[in-house]
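Internal tracking record. Fields below are filled automatically when a chain is submitted to the structure queue. Please do not edit lines marked as system-generated. If the sequence contains nonstandard residues, flag them in the REMARKS field before resubmitting.
Queue: standard
Priority: normal
Entity type: single polypeptide chain
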Amino acid sequence: MFSKAYGAAIQGIDALLVQIEADVSDGLPGFELVGFLASEVREAKERVRVAIHNAGIALPPKRITVNLSPADVRKEGTAFDLPIAIAILAAFGHIPEENLNRTIFAGELSLDGRLNPVNGVLPIACCAKEAGFLRLFVPAANRTEGRLVPGLAVWGCRGLAQVLRALRGESEEDGEASDAGTISGHRDGRTFPCADGISDGEENSARQPDFADICGQTAAKRAIEIAVAGGHNLLFAGSPGSGKTMLARRIPTIMPELSREESLELSKIYSVSGRMGIRGSLIRTRPFCAPHHTITQAAMAGGGSRPKPGEISLATHGVLFLDEFAEFDRRTLEMLRQPLEERKITVDRVAASCDYPASFMLVAAMNPCPCGAYPDRNLCRCTEPQIRRYQSRISRPILDRIDLFVQVSPVSYAELMQREVQESSARIRERVCRAREIQKKRYEGLGLRTNAELSARQLELFCPLGEEELAVMKEAFYRYRLSARSYHRIVRTARTIADLSGCEEIGAEQLCEALAYRRRVCE
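SYSTEM-GENERATED OUTPUT FOLLOWS
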């Protein structure tokens, strides 16, 4: 007999529908799996065979052939265990084949028939909904994640026997279609936005840092406000203990809330990475990823024998903070060039090519010299060649992709002891949100969120300069020997400064302020 069931293969952060065909025939008993399979999928035949036996079903000795189609797409992961078992049982007549219509399956089988959780359930649920499926069977631990997709009946089962009862109509388990999906922010105790059961209000009061905690550093706070408002990249330079890391860790507190589309995309990334957490809710808090400077290229960009998103994808719609910027491996930093421009990264492997989102805000921090005391020659003992060699670890192409450079000076004793209340993150966030709303209306229908995403052609349309402004930029272009990329980034930054000021046109004042944030590198 012949039957078929449906599963899905993860490709990047999306899923591709896979048809599992099972044929049972007379002949020498055997079990063959075909269809461009990874090793963990080929091993499924042993897990499936024993799980079916331990679920109380004795299969007669037949020749079983299972094909996973399309055969030119590589299938990886253990989520195919359940659909393979269902296709085989339907071929043997244990399940009415009509009960498999418009139903998709995902789950890993234990030898005793239990269903273990798998990664990527959210993309699979989205794929099922888009393909017109009505039901999704997943492990019980993945049910909440699957129910984030509206209009899809998600059954969370603890074992193969429970799945069989549901398909035969013998179970009264709750499998109604999910609603729009409740968005709730969550963390796992790290810098990733994953679940730990703490509500947003509790998190804000108990954990969230605030700009009101920082004494002084008015210029750095202004630069951060501009960077967040326009989605620009930012580099802090200053001596150890001046507050670079403290400033960076407070950046997410002034960022606008994630939109529904951003939240879904970010949740897909964390789903395929296995970092959705125990609650499996849509991610609402913007991520703050701060990898150590010893991170490898693969961990930063993503990839591996089974490609997974890297740090730059996990930071999508949030902040990628690179502390000790000059200590990172040069090849790792150079790898950031494409993502910073194209806001995505392509991981190519022999078997497949995956595209991962990489729309993040880069925030970096570095010391001015190996000892960190330069330019204070009373403390700095580094030679000029040592200082130049240290600073040259950051290549010109990478510096060209950073919009704002900020010199962070040590806080004075008077600033440290002052009792004046500093401006809170909530106040700064209000101004940022107003500027973002202006950009949202300006770029409506273009697929752009911030000024930083404007192309060179779009700059001419949305950032026109008058004669006085063009004269300012012409003088700066020759004096600071700007590249075309630097020129465009200065104009984008000036557009953001104008939005924060409520100005419709870019003036010379905004251009001069934008130029001031590049002067340290240009001179």
